[in-house]
Write a structure and sequence with these properties.
767 residues, Ubiquitin-like (UB roll), elongated, alpha+beta
């Protein structure tokens, strides 16, 4: 009897793609409100028949076969009418037989054997919900697959062995591994010795690819001066990377692989944070990962049940090894610098299901409230090994608004996602685990640089706080939330977009997977089909019934049927995002045109300012040139005045030293005729000589009489008196042609000795 009931239940679930909620809704909802009829309770009519039983379903597979290691290029394969009682190995055979040439060509390019058995051995599938059970002997029925499946596939290349050295021995690869001892303070004392200098990096020497995990743990324990079993390892590592697997295995004391197993790189430095388990303690943090839900938020340490993935000898298959279920019931998140009671994470002694996402005492402090929401949410709903952390925005509503729909520049603006949680809603658990913590949702948020702003409306004070934040900016959203009467609508995921200066509701997803949009929204015309509708499945699955009364009336909202399928939900969100991009295109174009005009004006302003600067530089250069010219003229005038003053002084001194001219007819005198130079026919100092002392110039000659005893010095003084300085002019005899001013030693020679008596003609020439 039990086996019959089990088979019946399994057949029913197959009709609904193993969606328990959809199956329950079908049988519990009964006829829709529009079809209600009066029924005689005494009637003996049989109940409505069950959905037709299908013993052997036929499955279809759309396989994207990756042709490179980076998974950038692919071939599209299609298999139809595959019985679900066939195995995964049979599926590989069908694929290879149908596409033998393409797969053999690809295997040859990868340096692999093109035999059927070899290609089958190295072929891998991705895309199913339970990859741990995927092996060649597993039946397709055991995987609980829908009718239409989209999988990814690729050839996993054999791990290459290290090349031997010239002497035939295999060289070990050394690794640069350092640890940082993180102190855990308990009762005011540190578990680590302070002689290590706090968080200083400590290198572990002699680490090679043949070093085992046990040796690595032992070396770290020696540095930390603690036991190996009390160590907890963590490192910054990408998700599903070899380094993350290494951290998980280091925290599992029974694992003892060598480092060769994790394919580390010898030219890279690996830094591990090593801490200890504080004793006594009710929590067991392993520190395998550090998460931060938003930029600038404080880090949370996640302890998950470790999953150990081992490669076999030839690197062909991956096996999943589960750890004892009683070791850790829930992941533990530690807040490193806050001891607020409302923010304490659940431990083994506290079930996170009993903790409020946002306690009443934190509603007035939104930042701490959201941090508490994040901690408790992850402990409740992300405790599966394959769960993904949702990208939550843990900032105030105003900050989240300003960083999404509040951005002024259209090309930088993005939608705002709001998640409203209600603990008393029956759909909260399945919505969070299947939608928010799904890989599809995480990938969608990451690809589009989006975050979800969460809030808990379980408490009336939390709901009132939310409405007070929404009313000033998003009154239409507040109105929609007020019309959402009844717990059956919760939780809600709301997408808000700013289009043409107005804040529009792009979509509201309810806890039952139903999308609805206000009829006044510009997005309403696009909601013409349900997220659960699938033409390919209509033959095998009955449609889901609407089980909730959304909004006040159908005239206010455009609704679509739905089911909680993460990929379909994300597909609908992506459609809304694409429509938003289309609606935003005119604004982006207008912004770009406005920006172009502003750039043109700025360019013109820069050109005008540059023109003014050039004019100013020219003016300054002209002024500088005039100033330099004036300075030169002033200097020249100063020099001329200095020369004039010096010449005047010399003239005065020469006049004083000049002997008195003897009268004509005096015996023994020398009459000297000075021929003036043609370049200076008038003595330079003639104007400064008093009228009574001024010599007469006749035919270019000046005549002066000297006593026979007068010397050559007296003749030179007469030259200075006339302004013909000895330094600038020379005095030449006619015959022989001798310069009388060339030698100062003859200054005291008399006129008689110079044979200038009784008369002589002397020529004045410029030197």
């Amino acid at each position: 009897m039990f086996k019959i009931q089990r088979d019946l239940a399994e057949d029913i679930l197959q009709q609904f793609n193993f969606d328990i909620e959809a199956a329950a809704n079908f049988f519990l909802s009964g006829p829709s409100n529009e079809d209600v009829e009066m029924i005689d309770v005494s009637s003996n009519e049989p109940p409505p028949p069950l959905p037709p039983k299908s013993h052997k379903r036929r499955l279809s597979f759309y396989i994207n076969f990756h042709t490179d290691e980076d998974k950038l290029n692919m071939l599209n394969f299609h298999l139809d009418d595959v019985p679900e009682n066939r195995t995964v190995g049979d599926l590989k055979d069908l694929l290879i037989n149908k596409y033998r040439d393409e797969l053999a060509s690809l295997a040859a390019k990868m340096g692999m054997c093109t035999e059927v058995d070899s290609m089958k051995k190295f072929m891998r599938f991705e895309g199913m919900q339970n990859p741990s059970g995927l092996n060649d002997s597993a039946t397709l029925k055991s995987l609980h697959l829908p009718i239409n499946n989209t999988w990814a596939s690729y050839f996993k290349k054999r791990t290459r062995l290290r090349r031997p050295s010239s002497d035939g021995s295999i060289k070990s690869m050394s690794y640069n591994i350092k640890i940082r001892l993180i102190s855990n303070h308990s009762n005011g004392e540190s578990n680590f010795h302070h002689s290590k200098g706090g968080n200083k990096l400590i290198p572990l020497l002699g680490i090679t690819d043949v070093t085992s995990l046990a040796e690595l743990r032992r070396m770290a324990a020696q540095e930390a001066k603690v036991s190996v079993s009390s160590l907890r390892w963590s490192a910054k590592s990408p998700k599903n990377s070899n380094l993350e697997r290494l951290v998980v295995d280091l925290n599992h004391i029974t694992m003892d692989n060598t480092l060769l197993h994790y394919k580390l790189k010898s030219d890279q430095v690996y830094i591990f944070d090593v801490s200890t388990i504080p004793l006594p303690s009710t929590s067991k943090p392993s520190g395998s990962q550090i998460f931060s839900s938003h930029k600038g938020s404080r880090p949370y340490r996640l302890t998950k049940r470790p999953v150990v993935i081992d490669d076999d000898d030839d690197g062909d298959t991956l096996d999943q090894q589960e750890i004892d279920d009683d070791e850790e019931d829930y992941p533990v998140y530690e807040i490193s610098d806050d001891e607020e009671p409302g923010l304490r994470a659940a431990t083994e002694s506290t079930n996170p299901q009993n903790l409020p996402l946002i306690p009443a005492n934190l509603i007035t402090n939104p930042v701490k409230a959201l941090e508490n929401f994040f901690v408790v949410f992850i402990q409740r709903y992300c405790n599966e090994a394959d769960s993904s952390l949702p990208s939550f925005c843990l900032q105030t509503f105003s900050e989240a608004f300003a960083q999404s729909v509040g951005i002024q520049k259209a090309y930088e603006r993005k939608p705002m996602l709001i998640y409203l949680h209600h603990d008393r809603s029956i759909a909260s658990n399945i919505f969070c685990t299947k939608i928010l913590c799904s890989d599809s949702m995480s990938a969608f948020l990451e690809e589009n640089n989006l975050q979800i702003w969460p809030w808990d409306v379980t408490l009336e004070s939390g709901r009132e706080a939310l409405l007070s934040w929404l009313e000033p900016r998003l009154s239409n959203v507040a109105s929609e939330i007020e019309h959402m009467e009844g717990l059956e609508n919760y939780p809600l995921l709301i997408m808000i977009c700013k289009v043409a200066g107005a804040y529009e509701i792009a979509a509201i997803l309810t806890g039952h997977g139903i999308f609805h949009i206000p009829i006044s929204s510009v997005f309403a015309d696009t909601s013409s089909h349900g997220i659960g509708d699938n033409d390919d499945d209509n033959d095998s699955f009955p449609p889901l019934l609407e089980t909730s009364n959304i909004g006040a009336s159908s005239s206010r909202n455009r609704r679509s049927r739905g089911g909680l399928n993460a990929q379909i939900v994300v597909s609908q969100l992506r459609e809304k995002l694409q429509l938003y991009s289309h609606l935003l295109a005119p604004e982006i174009l207008a912004d770009s045109e406005r920006l172009a005009r502003e750039n043109m004006r700025e360019e013109q302003d820069r050109a005008y300012k540059e023109s003014l600067r050039q004019d100013r530089l020219k003016k300054e250069a002209k002024e500088k040139e005039l100033a330099e010219l004036a300075a030169k003229e002033a200097e020249a005038q100063r020099i001329a005045e200095e020369i004039e003053r010096t010449a005047l002084e010399k003239q005065k001194l020469a006049a004083k030293s000049l002997p008195k001219e003897p009268s004509q007819g005096t015996p023994g005198i020398a009459t000297l005729r000075f021929r003036l130079p043609q370049t200076n026919p008038q003595p330079p100092a003639l104007d400064r000589i008093p009228e009574e002392s001024r010599p007469q110039i006749a035919n270019g000659f000046i005549v002066r009489r000297f006593n026979g005893t007068d010397t050559l010095k007296d003749v030179k003084n007469f030259m200075e008196f006339l302004g013909y300085g000895v330094l600038d002019f020379k005095l030449l005899r006619t015959y022989p042609r001798v310069d009388l001013t060339s030698n100062d030693e003859s200054d005291n020679t008399s006129m008689v000795d110079l044979k200038l008596v009784p008369q002589e003609t002397l020529n004045l020439e410029k030197r």
